Amino acid sequence: xxxxxxxxxxxASDRSYGRDPxxxxxxxxxxxxxxxxxxxxxxxxxxxxxxxxxAVVLPRTVGRH
Length: 65
Description:
Blueprint (H helix, E strand, L loop, with lengths): L1 H18 L30 E3 L2 E3 L8
Antiparallel strand pairs: 1-2
C-alpha cells in the first residue's frame, strides 16, 4: 500500500512539473526504497517476552488486552 501511494504521488508531481515547472524547485525524483533481503526486524517490549527452556516465548497477541 505504501509503495503504491508513493508511486502515485511521484507521477502526480511529475505531471504537475510538466505543466508548470515554476511550482517546484526541481524535477521530482522517483521514490527510493530500502533493500529487502527477506528479513524484517520486529521489536517487542521486554516485559512481553519470556524465556523458557532456553527458547524465547512471544505473546500470542500484541496490542490491546
